[in-house]
Amino acid sequence: MKVVLFCGGFGMRMREGAGSAPKPMQLIGDRPLLWHVMRYYAHFGHKDFILCLGYGAAAVKDYFLRYDETISNDFTLTAGGRDIQMFSTDISDWNITFIDTGLRATIGERLMKVREHVQDEEIFLANYADTLTASDLNASVASFRDSGAVASMLAVPPVSTHHVVEMGDNGLVTRVREVRDLMQYENGGFFVMKPDIFEFLHEGEDMVPHAFDRLIPVGKLQAQRYDGFWRAADTFKDRAELEEMFARGDCPWMVWDDNRNGGRKLIVPAQHTRASSLVA
Fold first, then answer.
1. Would you tell me how many other CB atoms lie within 10 Å of the CB of residue 229?
2. In the predicted model, is pLDDT for residue 274 greater than 50?
3. Residues pairing with 278 in the sheet
4. What's the pLDDT score for residue 161?
5. pLDDT in tens, 142-167
6. Which residues pair with 128 in a beta bridge?
7. Are 35 and 51 in contact (CB under 8 A)?
8. How far is the C-alpha of 132 from the C-alpha of 266, rounded, in Å?
């Protein structure tokens, strides 16, 4: 299956203290966020990528044009560096298509601009370029096939350290609880779609909410509840936390590396919910 990745946004919240590099190119360990997302899909056998570029497009292109396999793979160097024998590789069998989808385009507009690359697929995958998980992608695809839906998304609990305050009309607090204790789910990305999505997405619109709002009344939008590891690197703080996890060797999203994911078993998303219960 082809994988569409939206990696053209400005990422202003990420840029505090992080320079001007595009958000998907911020490093987690020795590799950028985008690489971690792509490596996840490749682990499940999906290695045909379509990158929807915008802000920072040159940085993304340059990274892959100059890609160095030795950074994340073992190898033997001989002949004074003139001969390198790789024990394994990351991207040698990947197919990556780079498409300029506009500097200020929405997710929906970016998807429309790569329509010709996926419209002949039975199913295609899509995601943000800064979102990591340890969910079982094979299980998600299988659930989507059985659902009869046009689009599916991972539905995750809110990731927040904030507290919700409940109060009476007099202003007296009746309850304080953590956001993640609320019975709500967020749009966690990791979309599975059929090309039929383009029948619900119009030019100049966004995928969420416009196209998804049209799918809901006809029962064609699936949400798969998932309570395992999921993290969106929206801010500089988020990236710093992921970097700290990488330094500890505690990387549940690295499902392809048992040395770093702690040998965790993949968690299968629960039975799907109606999209109306989501916080997009």
1. 18
2. no
3. 185
4. 65
5. 999 999 999 999 999 887 667 888 89
6. 6
7. no
8. 13
Find the helix or strand (DSSP H, E) in which 74 lies: none
Average pLDDT, the chain: 89
Alpha helices in the chain (DSSP H): 33-43, 57-65, 107-113, 115-118, 137-147, 212-215, 236-248
**Can you read off the two tokens belonging to residue 268?**
């299968």
pLDDT band at 275 (very low <50, low <70, confident <90, very high): very low
Q: Is 80 exceeded by the pLDDT of residue 15?
A: no
Q: Which residues contact 240 (CB under 8 A, 6 or more apart)?
A: none
Contacts (Cβ under 8 Å, ≥6 apart) of 164:
176, 177, 178, 179, 181, 182
The single residue listed with the structure tokens 């033997």 is: 76
CA distances from 184 to 60, 109, 164, 181, 225 (A): 35, 28, 13, 8, 10
User: What does the pLDDT average to over 215-230?
Assistant: 96
In Å, the largest CA–CA distance within the chain is 80
What is the spatial distance between Cα 32 and Cα 64, in angstroms, rounded to a whole number? 11
How far apart CA 7 and CA 189 sit, in angstroms, is: 13
- Which positions ≥6 away from 102 have C-beta within 8 Å? 8, 54, 109, 110, 113
Q: In whole angstroms, what is the distance from residue 129 CA to residue 39 CA? A: 11
Report which of 264, 186, 197 is spatially closest to residue 224, judged by C-alpha positions. 186
Distance, CA of 1 to CA of 50 (rounded, Å): 11
Q: Where are the beta strands (DSSP E) in 79-233?
A: 83-86, 95-100, 124-128, 131-133, 151-156, 163-167, 173-178, 185-187, 191-193, 221-225, 230-232
